[in-house]
Amino acid sequence: MALNLSLQYKQTQSLVITPKLRQAIKLLQYSHIEMVSHVEEQLLENPTLEAVPDTEYGDNTAQAELRESAGAADRDRLEQQNGAETSIDWEKFLAHMSDRGPGLASGSLGGTIHDDLPPIETNLTYGESLADHLIFQLQMMRMSDEEHRAAETIAHNLDARGYLACALEDIATDADVDIEIALNALELIQSLDPYGCGARGLSECLVLQARVVYPEDDTFERILTDHLRNLEHKNYAAIGKALGLDLEDVIEYHKMIQELEPHPGRPFSSEEPRYITPDLYVRQLEGEWVVLLNEEGMPELKISRYYQKVMESAKKEDKEYLIDKLKGAEFLIKSIHKRRRTIRRVMESILKFQADFFEVGVQGLRPLILQDVADDIDVHMSTVSRATTNKYVHTPHGILDLKFFFTSGVRQETGGDMAAEAIKQRIRSMIAEENPKKPLSDQALAKALAADGVRVARRTVAKYREALGILSSSKRKQVF
Questions:
Q1: Which whole number is the average pLDDT over 252-266?
Q2: Where are the beta strands (DSSP E) in 43-104?
Q3: Which of 200, 203, 215 is nearest to 158 (CA)?
Q4: What's the CA dihedral at 223, 226, 232, 233 to 10 degrees?
């Protein structure tokens, strides 16, 4: 069999993501805070990029409303000045550049009242961790070096709840001690403040606290060790029968147990709060709902005239560097304007589809998918997905994730669909108004919804209730 080698031409089409396209996609996904941070970084890294004076950290509301009321001609002129519509041939620009125009603006070299203040790092404070809190107490106690080493190992292996997250054998191995010494160290940790730390489960955690708070009554330990599940389901009769207690006594024990802390490490949690800055505002102006962009902290950008003049006398290597930076600055300005237009158009489309929500609240939500908005503004669905990622809008009903407005629907007997979020809101309202001693079961909630014309199965009600973080009727029931 002979092998023949030959050359063949074949024409194919493929999508190639260029670096500039990748950057534009990345900018579209940025939240407002991330976008402000990115612009600040680019102002530091790209010398040809400048912020227009008096456009940074202004009054967001006034700026937004001013931009909204500006005419189309003014907006087009602003975009053209920032290079949003046309690209500049910088090589050609060098040959025809005029000597007119202001040079490099001189900045203020004077000091400020803050110059004598210490660095911000010296003013920061850091919260004490649970491990540090326990180790500090260990230093006040007498113990062997091995016990101290094992106790420190345990302190560093407690989870956010304050529970021991690994086996005691692993502690002994890590601390290089015998299992008996590791057990003694665990008992030392469990005797420290906050009580309940070092427990290996909820039952042991509550028992450790009950021994301190109610040292003369071992009934707490018997209930928490053997009947925690019955206590969870409020099966007081079974507990009373097993321990020989009256029903009223079991209920009283439950009241006191509820005062114990199931997660003793909670006050030492190191989880940082998450701050949300809205990217958009939806407000009613003169009877109409309008979309306003949040421009707080976001300066208008322009290309430096100084570096345009510098290129006239620059060396070849420097000129190539400056041309590269100028093109990067031009592309960033264009990308920012395109990002603004895309996000605004997406939000305006959402506003059109979800107009009832802004009028009456969650109950006015209608089913909506990404493709609906994509078809409405004539873009690809992936563009809508990126434009709504990590974006928040300030509405009369709170600050909401843009993904909130995209919700599935439940088919009704009338032929229409009802948004899942609207049904969840009804379930939440019904449970908030129920009799706590006779809570509504999932089946009862389904019947109540059906009476209001909302047809959902019991399983669907249970799924929505769990998504809302609401316990079942048996666990919501209050008997005292």
A1: 93
A2: 49-51
A3: 200
A4: -110
Q: What is the DSSP letter of 417?
A: E
pLDDT digits (tens, 9 = 90+) for 468-480: 888 888 888 877 6
CATH number of the 410-480 domain: 1.10.10.60
Alpha-carbon gap, residue 239 to 284, rounded angstroms: 59
The C-alpha atoms of residue 175 and residue 148 are separated, in whole angstroms, by 9
pLDDT at 96: 54
Q: Which two tokens stand for residue 231?
A: 């206590």
Number of H helices, E strands in the chain: 23, 8
Closest-CA residue to 321 (of 46, 42, 44): 46
161 versus 311: which is more confidently predicted?
Answer: 161
Domain ranges of the chain: 19-94+273-285+301-407, 130-268, 410-480
Cis amide prior to 194 (ω within 30 degrees): yes
How many beta carbons lie within 10 A of that of residue 154, not counting itself?
26
Tokens coding 408: 């599935």
Buried b (16+ CB within 10 A) or exposed e, 381-391: eebbbbbbebb
Instruction: Specify the amino acid at residue 166.
Output: C
pLDDT of residue 298: 85
The residue written with tokens 């530091």 in the block is 44
Lowest mean pLDDT among 208-222, 254-268, 271-285, 389-403: 271-285
For residue 270, the one-letter residue type is S
Q: What is the pLDDT of residues 57-98, one digit of tens each?
A: 444 444 444 444 434 434 444 444 444 445 566 556 555 544
The answer to whether 339 and 84 have CB atoms below 8 angstroms apart is no
pLDDT score at 181: 94
Confidence at residue 476, expressed as pLDDT on a 0 to 100 scale:
84
Q: Give the max Cα distance, the chain.
A: 100
Closest CA to 301 of 62, 23, 41: 41
Phi, psi of 394 (to 5 degrees): -90, 115
Looking at this protein, which amino acid is placed at residue 171? I
Residues near 381 by beta carbon (within 8 Å), at least 6 away in sequence: 370, 371, 374
Instruction: Give the residues across from 292 on adjacent strands.
Output: 281
Coil vs helix vs strand at 315: coil
Distance CA 373, CA 348 (A): 10
User: What's residue 91's pLDDT?
Assistant: 58
Q: Write the CB contacts of 336 (distance below 8 Å, at least 6 apart in sequence).
A: 27, 35, 39, 301
Which one-letter amino acid corresponds to residue 130? L
**Helix %, strand %, coil % for the chain, to 5?**
55, 10, 40
Q: Which candidate, 223, 282, 327, places its Cα nearest to that of 65?
A: 282
Q: What is the pLDDT of residues 118-157, one digit of tens each?
A: 454 444 445 678 999 999 999 888 899 999 999 999 999 9
- Cα 351 to Cα 52, 289, 341, 396, 417: the distances in Å are 32, 8, 15, 13, 19
